[in-house]
Amino acid sequence: SNYFYKDKHSKGGKLHNMPFWDYNSAWGITACALEEDTGWVYNTWCWPSMGPIPFWYSRMLQDSIYLRDLKCRWITWRSTVLDTANIFTIIDSLAAYLAVPSQRQYAQYNFSETFAGQVDTLKMFIRKRIAWLDANLPGNCWNLGLSENASFGDMFSVYPNPASGEVSLSFYLGSEKKLTIELYSTLGEKVKTLGEQEFQAGSNTVSFDVSRIPPGVYFMQVSDGVTSFGKKLVIAD
Fold it and tell me: So what's the pLDDT on residue 206?
């Protein structure tokens, strides 16, 4: 559950989506039509009011910049807080802490499933749900914002820039990686996949023909499937 609130115009007038509470739907214990580990709650009707979920979610998912930031945040959290092993470690620690009181609870109430069974059910839902989100979360993490990432700039360079014919990308890798290199507009729309291949550890240079791409400002995204970064590229006449 959550709600929206809007700052006064004197404070900037921004719309905020917070705070969050009642994570039952997110973890599979739900009253809002998400009984499976797939799909989205925002486009369903929710008990007890049986009213539609506010339209803001659908509208935000039409915004390419929001989708980009959403995907980037998800990728970051999946490697840290929302790493599956990290989540299960927290669950196991809480289950151990509740082991004794759970025995008293199960002695008093006639549950159809054991405490350990409920923990396993929760883990199974989380594993399936996260796998579905990994595969279906919309958006492209094509850069870390409209400005370039400083640390990335130390490892990757694009030249000539501006370019009108051939452009080269040089970079250094600490280990062998498969990289996908794509070109995006400033609205986050993919213009072209420039390449996808394995690169060796050490220094690498790859060149692309951009002569048929309309002049303008673009971002060249480099992704290894987990992390993505963007470098600004200007294509001239």
Answer: 92
